[in-house]
Amino acid sequence: MLPMKQEDGDLDSLVRKRIRALRVAQGWSLEELATRARLSQSSLSRIENGQRRLALDQLVTLARALDTTLDQLVETATDDVVTSPMIDGAHGLMRWPIKGVPGMTVMRQRLTEPPPDNPARMRAHPGREWLVVLSGTAVLMLGHRRFRLEANQAAEFPTMMPHAIGAESGPCEIMGIFDRDARRGHQREDGDAQGRCD
C-alpha cells in the first residue's frame, strides 16, 4: 500500500482524481491507459473510481504510463500558493523562485540603457533563458547578431552564446525565465546588471 502521512482519504481521492485528469488530458480512453500501464481496463476503472486499493507498484507503473513521476502523482497541495517577489531596487529587478522546479527563476526587469554591442562585454555561461518584452522595445544581442523585440514578443536562447539585453530609445520591461545553470551564471556577476540579462 502507498504510505500516506496526511489524511489517507483526502490523498487517496486526490491521487485517483489526478490519474483520471492526466488520462483525460492525454485524450486516452480507460482501455488505452490500461494497455500502456499493463493493467486490465476493469482494474484501472476501479482504481479511478475508488473501488480498488492503491498499490505502490501500480502507481509507479501508472506514473510512467502518464509521463510523470510517482512524486508528482502523490504530492499534496501546499498552502504557499501565492509568493511575493524578492526586489532588487538598485538593478530594477523582481525575482520569483519557481517552487515546483528547483533552480528555475522568473525575473522581471526594467531596462533603461542600450545593451553593449561588443561581445567582450557580454556574458556567456551554461544554461537556457526565455524572455518576453512586457512594454517598450528591447534589443537582444547574441554574439554579433542584434534582435529587436517589441512588446509581447519573446526570445529563447542558450546562454553559452555571448548575450546582453537592453532598451531601445526609452525604458522597457522584460520578464525572463532562467533554468538553474543560467540563474547561477547570472548570480556570479550580479554586481553589474546594467544592460545585461540579469
3D architecture notes:
The chain is α+β, with helices and mostly antiparallel strands and 198 residues long. It folds into two domains: 8-74, 434 Repressor (Amino-terminal Domain) (Orthogonal Bundle); 86-187, Sandwich (Jelly Rolls). It has helices at 8-26, 30-37, 41-49, 56-65, 70-74, 180-187; strands at residues 86-88, 93-97, 105-111, 128-135, 138-142, 145-149, 154-158, 163-167, 172-178. Helix 2 packs across helix 3. The longest helix is centred in the first third of the chain and has 19 residues, at 8-26. Mean pLDDT is 81; it is low at 1-6 and 191-198.
Keywords:
198 residues, alpha+beta, 434 Repressor (Amino-terminal Domain), Jelly Rolls, 2 domains, six-stranded antiparallel beta sheet, three-stranded antiparallel beta sheet, 6 helices, disordered C terminus
CATH fold node name of the largest domain: Jelly Rolls
| Integer-rounded radius of gyration | 23 Å
- Strand percentage, roughly? 25-35%
CATH class annotation of the largest domain: Mainly Beta
- What is the chain-wise order of helices and strands? HHHHHEEEEEEEEEH
The main sheet comes to: 6 strands, antiparallel
What is the domain tally? 2
Distance between the termini: 47 Å
Shape assignment: elongated
Tally of extended strands?
A: 9
Please state how the strands of the largest beta sheet are arranged side by side. 1-2-3-9-4-7
Poorly predicted ranges:
1-6, 191-198
